[in-house]
Amino acid sequence: MGKSAPMNPFWLCAFLVYSLHIFQVPTMSWAVNSLDFAVRGPSFNVPHISHQKKRSPRADMEAESMRRLALLEKEVLQDRLALQRDEARRAKASVDQLKQRIKDLEAELEGARCEGKAIYAEMSRQCQNLQEAMQSRSRQLEEEVKGLRQQLELCQREAEAAQREAKQALGERDQTLAQLRAHVADMEAKYEEILHDSLDRLLAKLRVVKPQWDGAVLRLHARLKEDLRQFGLNPLDL
Fold first, then answer.
1. What is the phi-psi region of residue 42: left when phi exceeds 0, alpha when psi lies from -120 to 50, beta otherwise?
2. Residue 14 has what pLDDT?
3. What is the mean pLDDT of residues 163-190?
4. d(CA 177, CA 161)
5. Contact predicate 66/9, CB 8 Å
6. Which of 18, 55, 74, 215 could serve as 35's disulfide partner, Cβ 3.0–4.6 Å?
7. How far is CA 181 from the centre of its chain?
8. Which of 5, 73, 79 is nearest to 39 (CA)?
C-alpha cells in the first residue's frame, strides 16, 4: 500500500464548519485547535512533500485561499472563545452574586421566620391571656348577674309583700275611717239631740225665772235711781 496523502484543508474546513453549525460542537477550543491543525498541517506529512506530485497554480491558489479562510475562521473562533470566556466569567460572577444573594435572602428569610415564630408565640400568649381574662371576667359577670337576679327576685318579693301590706293597710284604714265617720255621725246626732234637749230645758227654766228676774231688775233699778238722787244726780243725765 502507498503512503497516505496529506489532508486537504478545504475538506477539513468544511468538516469543521459542518460540525460547528450542524452538530454544534460544545468546546470551541477543540475547533480552534483543529483549524490550527488544518492550517499548519500534520507534522508527519512534511517529510513526504518531495514525493507528492507538483500541484498546479490553481490548486495553490485554492490552498492559499482555504488557508486564509482557515486563519480567518480561527481568528473568529478565538474571538468567539474569548467572548464566551468573558461571558462565562461574567456568568460565574453573576452566579456567585446570585448565590450570595440567595444566602442573604435565606438568612433574611430564616430571621423573618424566627421573628414570625416569636411574634406568633407572643401573639398566642397574649391571645391565651386575653381568653383567660375574658373567661374569668365572664364568670365574674355571670356570678354578679346571678347575685343581682337573686336580689331582684328578693326585692320583687319584698315589693309584692309591701304592696299587699299597703293594700291591707289601706283597706283597714278605709274601714276604720268608715267606722269613725259612722261613729262621728252617730255622736253628732246624739250631741245634737242632747243640745236640743238642754236648750229646751234652759228655755223652760228661763221662762220660769224671767218674771222673777224682771221684778228684781225693776226693784234694783228703782233703788239705784233713789241712790243717785240722794247724791244729787239726775238718772236721766247718765
1. beta
2. 52
3. 90
4. 24
5. yes
6. 74
7. 74
8. 73
